[in-house]
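Handout, page 2. Input:
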Amino acid sequence: MKESLSENASAQDILNALQETLLAEKDFHRLFDAKLLQVRSQMGLPVTQPTSLENVPADQQAAFREAYVTAAREVGTLFLDDNNVADAWAYFRTIGEPEPVEAYIEKIKVPREPDEAFDQLMNVALYEGAHVTRGLEFLLKTHGTCNTVTAFSQLQQQMTLAQRRTAGAMMVRTIYEDLQASVRREVEARMPVLSPNASLKELITGREWLFAEGNYHIDVSHLHSTVGFARVLEAEDPELRLAIELCEYGANLASQLQYPADVPFDQYYKAHQFFLSALAGDNVDAALAWFTQRLRDEPDEPDQRLIAFVLLDLAQRVDRTKNVLHDTIDFVGKMEDPNGFSFSKLCVELGMLDELEQSATAHDDVLGFAVARLTKYSAAD
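Output:
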């Protein structure tokens, strides 16, 4: 760089030569600094610590932030063009623009023999959040079901609902296909003539011997986890029907292979059959009645709250909220999560302001009472 500059080189000449040199050397991190060095020079700011906001006057911070975002976007793109996803993600994540990295990862195919570079990309996608669902897919194809179930279980609370739904569908498909193939092999050993398109339900119906003496056909912990993952699915997801069949299989397993869970899913496969079938539009009244009875029969107050929340969640998803509000109101009436469930918001949306006011009075909730009254006054105007 120094050799290309004359003694009379201007500040702009120096900045241009600096960026050209760093670009040619693919020193993109320092190129980011150089871009902001140029911005500072043009704005008349100190050129030391070029990426820092600390020495930027308040009236220039907006312009500097905009330049910072532009420089990060340009450098992030350079890293992507150089197939360096990890460093690209550092820039795009900082400026809150994940889309370019997501689009890049979406196009990646799993190599036949994954190498260190692919593992690094998978880690960025999965554990750094660049594209979690694709990362889970990479993990499934390269490290198997066990690792993927574990990762999904650990990460699902950090995932969006849409991400959990996509990943849940993938896991249901995977477990269903593996289980269907395993059961089919055992059935064909006794019955060579078998419909080529037999579903899992068709394969197990009337064949209790498949489960004799504690027999099973897939890792039951994987089955257990995947059925739980399926609760995020919706009626339009074809995997929902597959998950219901997984429940039917699980319900046939020996009792010691049916792991319990928190209420109301302590009767794990039976409870999930009701829940998932209702989501699919089948036996909705029976499902709501079953969970309502579980609530009425439960003596433990913390468990009552869990059951009430599940019941209300199911009712909302099948458009039957008003049917269960009376049974759940005593347990969910004080739930007000700014980023999640809000009882007052639910009542306002349903026009159930009297119920909100009554609940607020019973729970000495002055804020909920005010919301109910103010909404009534607003509706009356």
